[in-house]
Design goal:
The protein is mainly alpha-helical. It is built from two helices and no strands.
Length: 56
């Protein structure tokens, strides 16, 4: 997979996380989860049904 493909940065980060000792790995996954959740929440786009979208 070429380095410029979408998601390659994420794959690289996961590879680095997997090389860490268990306690550090767990903390790194929590941080990654939090970052991805923030990015999803701030992304423009449609809201999911039941997620507080605009009333019709």
């Amino acid at each position: 997979m070429p380095d410029d493909e979408p998601g390659e940065g994420l794959v690289s980060r996961v590879r680095v996380i997997e090389q860490q000792p268990l306690a550090q790995r767990a903390a790194a996954y929590v941080a990654l989860h939090d970052e991805l959740a923030r990015r999803l929440e701030s992304a423009p786009g449609e809201t999911s049904a039941g997620q507080g979208g605009e009333p019709r």
